[in-house]
Amino acid sequence: MTESQFLAGRLLLAMPGMGDPRFDHSVIAMITHDESGAFGLGLGHLREGVGLHEILEELDIDPGKAPDAPVHDGGPVEPSRGFILHSRDWQDEASLDAGPLGMVSASLDLLRAIAEGRGPERWLMALGFAGWGPGQLDNEMRHHGWYAADCHPEVIWETRAAGRWQAAWRAEGIDPSLLASETGNA
Predict the structure, then answer these.
(1) Nearest CA among 73, 78, 44, 79 for reference residue 163
(2) In terms of Cα–Cα distance, which of 97, 86, 101 is closest to 151?
(3) What's the whole-model pTM score?
C-alpha cells in the first residue's frame, strides 16, 4: 500500500485543539485518499432538526418503511449533497467501494430501496462531505491535526454519533481524556 492510499478505509479522528472548530471531535470515514486528494464522510455529528423522512419528501420519495433516521453532518463541502455509507449487501453501478467501511452511494435508487424496505441491512446518511486537495490532508497529518484509526465497525454501526469520537479512541486502546490539546517540538 502506498503512503497516499494509507487513509482510505480508515477512520480519521480530529485531535483535540486542532484549530478548526468545524472539525471539533470529528470522526471521518475516509472513502478515498490518493494523489488527487481525499474524500470522507463525517459520522461524529448530526444535522440538527433534519431527518431522513424530510429529505425523502424533498426528493418526492414516499418514506414508506424507512425509519426517520438522523442525518449526519458529512462535512463542510457541498453541505446539501447527500451520501449514504452502507453495508455491502446492496450496490449498483453508482456505489463506490469504501474498503472495510462498506460502500458509499449518492444514488436515488438506494434511497428508494431504503424507503421500500429492500435497501442494505446497515446504512447511515450524511449531508456534505470532507474533502482535501492533493497533499492537503497529508500536510494536516504531519501537523498533528488528525489521527488515523483502524476501521472499527462497532463504532460506525453500533455507536451513536455523539459517542463515536470517544468510542473510536477507546477502540484504538487510547483514553481520550488523556489527549493533550497542544503538541510541542523536540
Answers:
(1) 44
(2) 101
(3) 0.90
Q: Residue 97 contacts by C-beta under 8 Å, 6 or more apart in sequence? A: 103
Q: What does the pLDDT profile of the chain (186 residues) look like in tens digits? A: 444 457 889 999 998 877 788 888 999 999 999 999 999 999 999 999 999 999 999 999 999 999 999 999 999 999 999 999 999 999 888 899 999 999 999 999 999 999 999 999 999 999 999 999 999 998 888 887 899 999 999 999 999 999 999 999 999 999 998 887 665 555
Q: Domains in the chain, ordered, with CATH? A: 3-178 (3.40.1740.10)
Residues with Cβ < 8 Å from 48, sequence gap 6 or more?
A: none
Q: Give the DSSP per-residue string, the chain.
A: --GGGTTTTSEEEEPTT-S-GGGTT-EEEEEEEETTEEEEEE-S-EEEEEEHHHHHHHTT---TT----EEEE--SEEEEEEEEEE-TT---TT-EE-GGG-EEE--HHHHHHHHTT-S-SSEEEEEEEEEE-TTHHHHHHHTTSEEEEPP-HHHHHHS-HHHHHHHHHHHTT--GGG--S-----
Other Cβ atoms within 10 Å of 9 Cβ, number:
20
